[in-house]
Amino acid sequence: MNILLLLAGLGLILAGANLLTDGAAALAQRFRVPEFIVGLTVIAIGTSTPELVVSVLSAIAHNSDIAVGNVVGSNLFNVFVILGICALIRPLALSDGNIRRDIPFGLGASVLLFVLASDKLLHLGAADRIGRGDGIAMLLLYAALMGYTIRTAGRDKETPTHAGHDSETSADTGTRKSIWLTAAMIVGGLAGLVFGGELFLHHATVIARKLGVSESVIAITLVAGGTSLPELASSVVSMAKGKAGMALGNVLGSNVANILLILGVSATIHPLAMGGITTLDLGMVVLSSLLLFIAAFTFRRRSIDRWEGAIFLALYIAYIWYLVK
Fold first, then answer.
1. Residue 159 pLDDT class (50, 70, 90 cuts)
2. Residues 6+ apart with CB under 8 A from 228
3. Of 70, 197, 227, 277, which has the highest C-beta tally within 10 A?
4. For residues 161 and 296, is the Cβ–Cβ distance under 8 A?
5. Which residues contact 122 (CB under 8 A, 6 or more apart)?
6. Per-residue pLDDT for 167 more than 60?
């Protein structure tokens, strides 16, 4: 029964995220907000909404293991599984924006997370934690990066790399829906996210305790995999439509939002103790971003090839095996 209720909660989260994103995109188009800004803000954050809901509710409940583990696991799932699968389907070409902006931003955010959460290792404190001051700084940095990204995207006139769906999606969702329907979609989406998040979080915790598995491991594996489904679905659909850039931008934008926005909000609500999240877990997040950085700057083809996708998947399998053995 707990598993069924867990899946029901996840279904509400995914449905709510879809409704909220579509409603917000329709509202933005009604007020003539430029499409690329909608992609970089509304849709980028929309695909990360499940992670946001789970981590924020966990922070409110003082359950830091799930709040942090959800972000750590989601970022690893995004790079190693989603990009791994997409690269096996078709090599992922890297745009100038990916190389100049998105991949360095992702690596910088990963290193920042490692530094902020490794107080004992760096002799900065008695316990590993992300404090309120850290959370506020992360939010300010995210706002600055978004502002920079919007300015450069507008100047370069390139496809928004942070969009979780293709441009057709934002156009379709905003086709002159009535203001009442748009409002209903936004309110319904928020309701689905809140109730689904509470249901999902409660039963994930119950399952972890019954199985004798730490909540941090459940968060990194089960919770993170579930909340990353929007990114997985939108990336695979983008690949099927021949829009590899969308699949790559979806992951890169989501990873930065996960760290700076989601953990920033969560830590501002309540300081996050690392608990069962280890230096290895944080190091794997840095490694995933570093491998993308190496692929971008050391190979002439400027793409993530099939053999690199296979390596990503193998690394993820080895890491999960280490966690659950």
1. very low
2. 50, 51, 73, 74, 77, 78, 81, 82
3. 70
4. no
5. 115
6. no
